[in-house]
């Protein structure tokens, strides 16, 4: 049963076996498995419950309805825009469907650097197999790649660089291109059409528009989860409260809201909570082509390149993908003003864009960013952009420009406040000379990781390899916040698999 906020008329107190806080990639997969075992599950989700009938393909409706902070979430200094979902289904409702298994080199790094055992390719394989079957994860046919993705594929091939079709979690996809605004035909196998219905069919109760504010702990055990009902129209708290009395509590609110909840609950026992937050910081390059690209149609991401994922022991690697080019997103990303901005949007049908995602957290000493609380209890994200990232931004932007020129672009444009314009390889020196880093150009993130990192040592991590909290014995964290580094791939499938694996551990703690 789903309880929408406006249907909750008075305070609620409910007992259960497991309280899962958050309905995204981690919480949904976990809850479905627990409900299948016959456990009574109560789920709290601060976002609203929406269906395909609400997804009208309008950016002006989707961002306030489906994204954190109505689509305006950013780091504290406003240097990095943070795209993150906020609805039943979490970010899976609005992500671009790209799925990768965790790279073996990342699993090996976690074992060597953080002492994490039991997370290797072989042990995770059954969990990946299971979620891939349920979510219909499969390669997207190369022949269905839209022109924007085709530029990445063609440009890389002409340069002799690696590029290949991506795997997507879709079923009967109509290739509309509006994944980021909520799928209007339920082709995207997001949590609100897969694992959450599975859990609801087995008796789970889901309280939407209900934000967990505090986890109450006595000694080393959770005794209650305190939540407030929100007014969906304004996002503001009402006077109505929900109190859950669980045998086990699970934080699955993601790598920003999850650490913030534990901080509000006074659970930072070792000073590591909210630390080592990673973002896969993104820079982009736009290109103008003679022929129409129409990057607002077709699967947003269907081609990727990992040509530069490993650039040696002292440089940040990056991987290359594409974004959708819907007008509001494109207008926000392009940093010019006035007539120059209007001229760019007037030719949007002929624009192709590539993005480069820097793989943060792998170099020794790279601690990423920090999630903390403001004085009024609201979440704050700080993320310093240092010299290694600046170098990665420069190198990746040059690589993207070369790909776009090789694919036939007549002009390549950076997203600096004063855009750098490239018309031939001879102009690439302009990118070498341009300033890179915070406040110099647009920087984004759609991948938030870390903040409650797992590890063997309770002094330097928050949860162990089973995702159980080191100190609070009936508290688990099952979401992207447990990742001790970034991944170098889109993180959704890693979270699905970790949640699938965590089912047995959480059930055993009842």
Q: What structural class results from the helix and strand content?
A: alpha/beta
Shape: globular
How many angstroms separate the termini?
A: 22 Å
Mean pLDDT: 97
Content of β-strand:
15-25%
Unreliable stretches (pLDDT < 50, length at least 5) are none
Cα gyration radius (Å): 22 Å
Please provide a written account of the structure.
With 510 residues, the chain is an alpha/beta fold. It has a domain at 142-179 and 278-445. Helix content is 26%, strand content 21%. The protein is built from twelve helices and 24 strands. Strands 1, 2, 3, 9, 10, 11, 12 and 24 form an eight-stranded mixed sheet that branches. Helix 1 (25-36) packs parallel to helix 6 and helix 1 (25-36) packs parallel to helix 12 (492-508). The model has no long low-confidence stretch (mean pLDDT 97).
Search tags:
single chain; 510 residues; alpha/beta; 5-stranded antiparallel sheet; 24 strands
Layout of secondary structure:
Layout (H helix, E strand, L loop, with lengths): L1 E2 L8 E10 L3 H12 L4 E4 L14 H8 L14 E2 L15 E2 L4 H11 L6 H14 L2 E3 L7 H13 L4 E2 L1 E3 L25 H7 L3 E3 L2 E9 L2 E10 L6 E15 L2 H11 L12 E2 L3 E7 L14 E2 L13 E4 L5 H7 L4 H9 L4 E8 L11 E4 L5 E4 L4 H20 L4 E4 L6 E2 L6 H5 L10 E2 L3 E2 L24 E3 L14 H17 L2
Helix pairs in contact: 1-6, 1-12, 4-12, 5-10
Quick rundown:
This protein is α/β, with parallel strands linked by helices and 510 residues long.
């Amino acid at each position: 049963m789903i309880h929408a906020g406006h249907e909750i008329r008075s305070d609620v107190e409910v007992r259960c076996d497991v309280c899962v806080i958050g309905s995204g990639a981690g919480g949904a997969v976990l809850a479905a498995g627990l409900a299948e075992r016959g456990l009574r599950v109560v789920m709290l989700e601060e976002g609203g419950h929406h269906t395909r009938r609400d997804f009208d393909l309008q950016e002006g409706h989707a961002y306030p309805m489906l994204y954190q902070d109505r689509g305006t979430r950013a780091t504290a200094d406003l240097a990095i825009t943070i795209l993150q979902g906020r609805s039943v289904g979490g970010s899976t409702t609005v992500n671009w469907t790209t799925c990768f298994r965790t790279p073996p080199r990342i699993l090996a790094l976690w074992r060597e650097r953080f002492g994490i055992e039991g997370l290797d390719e072989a042990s995770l394989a059954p969990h990946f197999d299971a979620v891939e079957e349920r979510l219909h994860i499969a390669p997207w046919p190369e022949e269905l790649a839209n022109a924007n993705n085709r530029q990445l594929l063609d440009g890389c091939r002409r340069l002799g660089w690696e590029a290949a079709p991506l795997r997507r979690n879709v079923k009967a996809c109509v290739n509309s291109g509006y994944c980021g605004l909520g799928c209007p035909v339920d082709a995207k196998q997001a949590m609100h059409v897969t694992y959450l219905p599975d859990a609801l069919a087995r008796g789970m109760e889901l309280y939407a528009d209900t934000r967990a504010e505090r986890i109450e702990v006595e000694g080393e055990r959770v005794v209650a989860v305190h939540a407030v009902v929100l007014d969906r129209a304004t996002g503001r708290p009402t006077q109505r409260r929900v109190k859950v009395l669980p045998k086990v509590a699970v934080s699955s609110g993601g790598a920003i809201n999850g650490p913030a909840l534990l901080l509000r609950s006074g659970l930072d026992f070792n000073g590591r909570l909210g630390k080592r937050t990673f973002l896969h910081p993104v820079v982009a390059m736009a290109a103008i082509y003679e022929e129409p690209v129409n990057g607002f149609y077709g699967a947003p991401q269907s081609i990727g390149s990992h040509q530069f994922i490993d650039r040696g022991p002292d440089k940040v690697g990056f991987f290359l993908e594409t974004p959708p080019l819907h007008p509001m997103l494109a207008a926000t990303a392009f940093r010019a003003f006035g007539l120059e901005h209007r001229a760019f949007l007037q030719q949007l049908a002929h624009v192709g864009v590539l993005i480069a995602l820097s793989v943060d957290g792998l170099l020794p000493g790279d601690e990423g960013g920090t999630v903390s609380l403001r004085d009024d209890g609201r979440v704050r994200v700080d993320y310093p952009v240092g010299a290694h990232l600046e170098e990665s931004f420069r190198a990746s932007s040059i690589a993207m420009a070369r790909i776009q020129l090789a694919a036939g672009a007549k002009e390549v444009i950076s997203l600096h406040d004063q855009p750098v314009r490239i018309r031939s390889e001879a102009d690439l020196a302009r990118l070498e000379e341009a300033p890179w880093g915070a406040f110099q150009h647009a920087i984004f993130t759609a991948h938030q990781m870390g903040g409650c990192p797992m590890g063997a040592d309770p002094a330097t991590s928050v949860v162990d390899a089973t995702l159980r909290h080191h100190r609070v014995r009936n508290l688990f964290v099952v979401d992207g916040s447990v990742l001790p580094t970034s991944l170098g791939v889109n993180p959704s499938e890693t979270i699905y698999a970790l949640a699938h694996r965590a089912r047995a551990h959480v059930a055993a703690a009842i």
